[in-house]
Amino acid sequence: MISSINDFKNPFFIGIAGSGMSAIAQYLKGIGKNVSGSDRFFNADEYNETKAKLEAEGIACFPQDGSGITNNTDLVVVSTAIEDTVAEVQKAKQLNIPIVKRSELLAIIAASKKTIAIGGTSGKSTTTAMLFDILEYAGLQPSIISGAGLVSIIKQGKIGNAKVGAGEWLVIEADESDGSIVQYKPEIGLLLNIDKDHKEIDVLLDIFKTYKENSKKFVVNQSHPLAKEFSQAAKQDFSWNGSDAGYKATDFSQDGLVISFKINGVPFKMNLVGKHNMENALAAAALAAQTGVPLATSAESLNRYEGIYRRNQVLGNKNGVWVIDDFAHNPVKCAAAIQACQPIAPKVIAWFQPHGYGPTRFLRNDFVHEIASVLRPEDEIWMSEIFYAGGTAVKDISANDLINDLKALNKPAFFIEDRNDFLAAVGPHLTNNCVLLLMGARDPSLEQFAKEVWNKLTV
């Protein structure tokens, strides 16, 4: 039975290339554990960037064939995507090695530090990164375990989603999609928002109720009606729409790729886009204040904030066409990403690749409503076919169904089944003053796709 960070020395991760798994693996290596792992994407004759960066940290990587699990392995870690039928899981059982899920291990790690958990349907990775940067800038030497790489850490040649600091604070991204958020008992818990995503609202309300009960201090976004109901004390909450929260954002403006606003009168300026990023920064500053960091220090830090992997990531501008890559994948996030790009240019052409047939079916009406509500007359929405990651999914829905729903609302919507045909098809729609926004998640090749679009773009 593994109940403490001290109960194991040689953990092995099955599916170590995943963002959540690689973050914990790097953290454990950073505190002195002998970490190893495997992944189905690791092939002996193929270069894999994640594998190379893990090995550079001293983490041994193996193909997913069981060869990495030995008699010395004293813990096997699996993600929710790893089924019991996987050969490595079977080998671990034969050797009587304890098996824990990623979320269980993260809860054990969180219990070993003063942890700040970032929860909510949208904005978790960005807020986690912002708070970490603030605490680091303030000299608190925090640690971080996140679902996305920070550009500031990626620049050091690392994956960027984990770092071990000498201080007492650990900042983690707490995921509600699999319900694992209820396992954490943080010093400070944050609730950013509650929107339909992987689960229905009533299920999410129950999950976040437990999350609040498990948090010593709980901070909520009073601008979000459902989140506001979970308030523990208004003085530690935040808002941008005039509630009685202790931390209030005002005077928001966006000039191209820069946003400006004030928090309790203190001016903030960031190289980001979108009101949702003001909200994320407001959350981070409010949390930092709970650790004793002044708002002015947060403002100084966030002025230098470099962003995270595939969140409004600007690839560049060619002849007036801005190309922006974004992780947006649920209805609210897609709408927010489109809105954030609208102040940049008079026309936004958004391309989206939905992931999973079940999630797309579940959120079909929400996608149509949210996207339709933000499109300006000159904007366009394009979609390619749903990303299929394998398994036993029922393929009874297509991205074209969403496009037809949008067309029925008289929105300029286009379906291009194979994304490799997208650039040629969209070419005549581009202008010398527009944004080409690429959206999607879960598909590990999306970053490369965005780079190919940028490289092949000719206007």
From TrEMBL:
Keyword Cell wall biogenesis/degradation recorded: yes
Stretches assigned to the Mur ligase N-terminal catalytic domain: 13-113
Highest taxon listed in the record's lineage: Bacteria
GO molecular function, one term: ATP binding
Name of a matching Pfam family: Mur_ligase_C
Cell division as UniProt keyword: yes
Protein's UniProt name: UDP-N-acetylmuramate--alanine ligase
